[in-house]
Give the backbone structure.
Amino acid sequence: MTEAPGTHNPQFLPPNIPVPQDDGAARHLAGAKLPDIALPATEGAPVNLSKLKGRTVVYVYPRTGVPGVDPPDGWDQIPGARGCTPQSCSFRDHFGELKRLGVAQLYGLSTQDTAYQKEAATRLHLPFAILSDEKLALTRALNLPTFSTAGMTLLKRMALVIDDGTITKVFYPVKNVADVVAWLQRLR
């Protein structure tokens, strides 16, 4: 089943979309120190992940869709591309649980511009900020896994656990918050 043109529903996941596989592109991230880069945020002041104290979780995704606006051609055939909106909603729905499990800060991260991200954050009622790496500064500094489509460089989906500016755990590829929650529960 596919969507008719102009009826895109970013919450809908069609059957038989390709499942992302671990291609090793994030293997180098565990133990990496975050670079001193401030990123625009949907909730005001820029955020510098390298300066945050305590545990931070950043879920990384290619792009959120807009209802009624078709995704790029071939989007459903790119492993891990479809599902960014449900991923954001799952982090939203588990926000309180993540806090109870010791997460001091939670952020989403994409290469979309902040204005685009603000629309999604408002529409999805996200209780946390989304960070924009539109200029690819953090992406290049950390060599984050990316893919290109329709003239856009987009991040592959993953989640990073950062403790006092150092990446301590990488979930790649990630589909939702369940893996992060289970890992945090095992630490307790």
Notes: Residues 106 and 136 are 20 Å apart (CA to CA). The chain is about 20% helix and 25% strand. The chain has a mean pLDDT of 90.
